Amino acid sequence: MTEILPVLHGEQLTSPAAFHEPLHVASEGDQWWRSSVIYQVYPRSFRDSDGDGVGDLRGITAELQGLAELSIDAIWLSPFYTSPQRDGGYDVADYCDVDPLFGTLADFDALVARADGLGIRVIVDLVPNHCSSEHVLFQTALAAPAGSSERGMFVFRDGTGPDGTEPPNNWQSHFGGPAWTRTLDPDGTPGQWYLHLFDSSQPDFDWDNPAVHAEFERVLRFWLDRGVGGFRVDVAHALIKAEGLPDWGGRADGGSMEGFPGSEAPMFGQDAVHTIYRRWRSILAEYDGERILCAEASIDPLPRLADWVRADEMHQAFNFAYLHNPWNAHGLRSVISSSLAAFDTVGAPTTWVLSNHDVVRHTSRFGLTDGAPRGGDGIGSTDPQPDTAVGLARARAASLAMFALPGGIYLYQGEELGLPDHTSMPDDARQDPTFLRTNGERLGRDGCRVPLPWRAHAASSGFAGSGDTAGTPWLPQPEGWAGYARDLQAEDPGSTLALYRTALQLRRDLRLGAGSLRWSRDFERTDVVAFRNGELMVVLNMGEFAAALPEGTIVATSMSGVVQDGLLAPDACVWLMIRAGQG
Ligand code: NOJ
Fold first, then answer.
1. Whole-angstrom Cα distance, residue 242 to residue 521?
2. Interacting residues of 343 by C-beta distance below 8 A, sequence separation 6+
3. Quick one: angle between helices 273-285 and 210-225, nearest 10?
4. Are 551 and 10 within 8 A, CB to CB?
5. Strand ranges across the sheet with 408-412
6. Whose alpha carbon is nearest atom 6 of ligand 1?
7. pTM score, two decimals?
8. Ligand 1 site, residue 54, Cβ cutoff 6 A
9. Ligand 1 atom at minimal distance to the Cα of residue 91
């Protein structure tokens, strides 16, 4: 039986004294990106229009109407550029063209035009830290001698030790193994080494070289001229490396480790990187329509990350501290408070995100009642499996609470369907370089990249064409995938899709993104997170027992039936309108 813990009730709960002073006041600027909802499309897995098993630009265009129904302001497209696809397109061989796998530049223009007609901006992914080893600049550098200007576009160094057989320093690749690969000179003898913080097929550019700056300014203008709404900037903390490339004792990816604070990593967060973003912001300002830059920067703590969004730098930065908070009320309150404090200090919006193409989906993370995914980046069939029902209930509750937060929201395709990760993918289907470079020790990110289910009763759940053109999805879809199909959910008022549609529409109507935040002091229980944004009160029950609610009109719940007799069930969230004048 559900135990009810005593809490204050009714009037007391919504009295003026019941709320703390505002932690965050409503934003003054009304620029769209201060309160935006941006939906991430991972093109390979969104919708395949031609049945080759890989999603494409036409597939995205065909489904934009459905995305507009989520009250989004923009979509962010993960890379669709020419690429050998060794890292899902984050290995770019030509920054100014579309990979035939995804379509053509004309398809891209058609996508932007359709999005524009629906009031949706299109943000593209810029990958400036590294390119593909097949990029013409890298191929030219390989063919050129040591010390040449061609090699100067990348980080080539002589090796150490006898005959240069040891790498230039001890840095490790983010995907496992050394961050250096030795090249062969044209006569076949071993030559210099080049740096790659990621896969060996992703050589790092040398951002100390002005020619690299010029090349990327050209790329920015190419897409700005084509009408994009801005750029999500990949590994935006890594472009500049510390002078002399000193050895580093911390984790392979530059993260903190005892004795080695991440803030001192020589490959991340170097001061000079900010000069680049100031320049880019000034380029964007030459164009109309409030185009934006969003930093993908794994920087902690939050006040340091706020440096990326100072008034003359980027507009937004992903809030990974928020994403990584487990199902824990204390941690959630703390990360919300410290995020708003950090970003308010520089006058930037805080962003909120729960899932993306690099992490286990939040439905599966929150369903792991005994801890975090192994290695942080994948769940396999021999690992403890998430509890699907608990995971979905918590994911819906967490999303509903997030939608009431002031600032910008990022959604990842498929979360509006409540999709879990594929947690039993066969190893021979995996394609993430993390899996390949660690010999399977780390599973990698394929589990969250599974092609979406569109129609319950079609082959591949409607992802890869139909009838004669039906194809096989590039990653296998797990059993039961059709049960999450969009067409089923569109007909079901209790579905996750219906929740997202309703709540995001309310977020827009109530202007919650531009709103304020005050913590409620009413709940003696620390496992209930309660805050107010304007007239709306949000209660998220992260505990094991039902929680008594204040009086108010229910405007949204995370699942039907979670509020009964004034009590909010565990793993649930409610939005209440409280009476004017109260609080
Ligand atoms: C971050 C991207 O989100 C990830 O998918 C990619 O593998 C790395 N950057 C390298 O580009």
1. 46
2. 302, 306, 309, 349, 350, 407
3. 30
4. yes
5. 316-317, 292-295, 230-233, 121-126, 74-77, 37-41, 408-412, 351-353
6. 90
7. 0.95
8. no
9. 11
Q: DSSP secondary-structure letter at 184?
A: E
Give the residue numbers marked as catalytic. 234, 286
User: How far apart, in whole angstroms, are the C-alpha atoms of residue 279 and residue 286?
Assistant: 11
CA dist 73 and 80 (Å) reads 21
Indicate the burial class of 270 (C-beta count within 10 angstroms; 0-12, 13-18, 19 or more). middle
Strands (E), 199-334: 230-233, 292-295, 316-317
The CA radius of gyration of the chain, in Å to the nearest whole number, is 24
Largest CA distance in the chain: 84
Q: Does the CA dihedral 518-519-521-523 come out positive or negative?
A: positive
Cis upstream peptide for 301 (omega within 30°): yes
Instruction: Residue 42: count other Cβ atoms within 10 Å of its Cβ.
Output: 23
Say if residues 233 and 207 touch (Cβ distance below 8 Å): no
How far does Cα 153 stand from its chain's mean position?
Answer: 29
CB 233 near ligand 1, within 6 Å: no
The residues facing 554 across adjacent strands are 576
**What band does 437 get if pLDDT is binned at 50, 70 and 90?**
confident
Instruction: Give CA–CA dist 104/492, Å, rounded.
Output: 36
Ligand 1 pocket mutation, candidates 235, 237, 359, 377, criterion most atoms within 8 A of CB: 235
Q: What is the mean pLDDT of residues 111-117?
A: 98
> How many angstroms does the Cα of residue 287 sit away from the middle of ligand 1?
28
Q: Is 253 in the pocket of ligand 1 (CB under 6 A)?
A: no
Please indicate whether residue 412, judged by its CB atom, sits closer than 6 Å to ligand 1: no
For residues 537 and 550, the answer to whether their CB atoms sit within 8 Å is yes
Give 293's strand partners. 231
Give 166-179 pLDDT, tens digit per residue. Answer: 999 999 998 888 99
| pLDDT (tens digit per residue) in 237-289 | 999 999 999 998 876 666 655 556 677 899 999 999 999 999 999 999 999 99
Regarding the beta carbon of 127 and ligand 1, being less than 6 Å apart is answered yes
Q: How is residue 47 annotated by DSSP?
A: -
Tell me if 24 sits within 8 A of 340, measured CB to CB: yes
Comparing CA positions, the residue from 57, 30, 35, 36 lying closest to residue 46 is 57
Distance 358 CA to ligand 1 centre (A): 7
Q: How far apart are CA 400 and CA 398, in angstroms?
A: 6
Nearest to 553 by CA among 533, 537, 542, 567: 537
563, 571 contact by CB (below 8 A): no
